[in-house]
Design goal:
Length: 341
Amino acid sequence: MTYNDKVIHVTRSRRPQVVVIGGGTGLPVVLNALKEQNAEISAIVTVSDDGGSSGSIRNFINVVPPGDIRNVLVSLSEISQEEKDVFQYRFDSSDSFFSGHAIGNLIIAALNEMHGNIFDAVQALSKMMRVDGHVYPASNEPLTLNAEFVDGSIQAGEKEITDKDKRIKRVWVTNTKSKSEPEAVPPVLAAINNADAVVLGPGSLFTSILPNLMIPNLGEAVRKTSAEVIYICNIMTQKGETDHFSDCEHVKVINEHLGGHYINTTLVNGAKIDMSKFNPNDYDAYLEPVKNDYQGLREQGSRVITADFIDQRSGLVFHDGKKVAKEIINLAFAAMARRKD
């Protein structure tokens, strides 16, 4: 397969180059805010999701799960809000196929068939949606997430892993349709190599962040990059993944999977969360605020930046994208200055 030279060649500019790696609902929040900060953004998106509309489409045709890619495209798009709403619309129909499907997922699947691979499909759709930045699937092939639990048992499949509700020891990815080793395409590696800041998260530790880093050549690119590697620690622990984890335990798991101390800076929330605002029926997947362990983070070789990073105005709790983005941009500019020295 060949790739457009304009895509592979990542040029430096006056704008800080920020690579964000992950998936899930937290990623678009940060990307939206970074876009407002005028960063040159490359989003590397997880392709191992096997639930909901994405999983259903994946079961019908050989395509990576499109859900996270769809949300990231919208977050960086310059099209009108009405056009975004159409792209995000989910069918509320009794039809056995269309019910629950997002229009954007179907468009991504169609473009995948037209172009013959998901990478070229996403680049074509990025152009149509006037995306400010780059959106790269972490792999050009659908991947299956595998986990070994502390008790020694093994499970495949993202949903199946979290449904086990057991302590996870380690995860890895395999190609869903072949026995070849998973790999990231050259533009992904080039973006990481040329970045001023590489951001991990926010998102589910074992199912949104680590699946990307477990792609061998992508993980190696993160280990070798001279960029500032930043982890945005989750605000709440997650049932079936990070029950009762501290911020240090999140970072320790990432470092153990990468094989060394590779997180340069961790952004952690230091503000008190009003648990009385939670609706247990809406938030039953989350258990408690992530505990702070600043000493443990420093022992992991990570600088710690703590602040009020939460937005709980809706009653739920999310990262305040603007506050997080400002910290990322400051760290990216500092990395740019070090490179010039």
